[in-house]
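Onboarding guide, step 5: your first structure request.
Type a short instruction followed by the sequence, for example:

Predict the 3D structure of this protein.
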Amino acid sequence: MFNRLLAQEIPAAGVIAASGGNAGIAAATAAQALGVRAEIFVPTVISSAKRMRLEQLGATVVVTGAAYAEALAACQQRQQQTGALMTHAYDQPEVLAGAGTLAREIERDAGVPDALLVSVGGGGLVGGIAAWFAGRTRIVALEPQRAPTLNAALAAGKPVDVDVSGIAADALGARRIGALAWEVAQRHPMESLLLGDDAILDAQRWLWQSLKLAVEPAAALPLAALRTGAVSPAAGQRIALVLCGANVDPATLV
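The system replies with structure tokens like these:
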């Protein structure tokens, strides 16, 4: 989001975004740092922890619609009225490029892994990561069974709408894979796997109980893929897990 905001001239109306929570928190954080207004549209499935964080950051929070797509439609309508800078959660070049800096950091700190496991919602993060590595590592894109945005697109050969629900829908609740992420996936093929809610919650609890890492369900998919055997690395392989994000109420982790 910093990459998006710093690349544009921000109008007096500030910035506006729709999000299940995380991208909105990122936009609000960047807006606060730059001293501009932020208006964030979120669906009713947003967690109380994420909504509280948005309010703490000084954003104007508008709760509307049962899913991200409905919040996005309301956000786009509002943007036309105010002229605020639209910051998309996952489908703008600056957003993908900014997300790709995570892959750059991984390579700088630890070299190119044999495989990298990452959760997928609209595809901004996996798109940025895959664009950076450009086929130099195995990318495993992980989604909940009840939010199979990329998986359905790969099966259909094109982006398609899907129904979304389940434990990670607030963060991985896009109904269609982003156009930019889909374009990256055509150039740099990635594997797509689906995981059930029980496996996701089990991995989330393990991360807290064993490592004291407080992550939301969406961030637990990479570990869930290993714990269930959906991904089985060969001996000696170096595997990178992207545990993103951490906007969760720790009281829910026990």
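Each response can be followed by summary notes, for example: The first strand starts at residue 15 and ends at 18.
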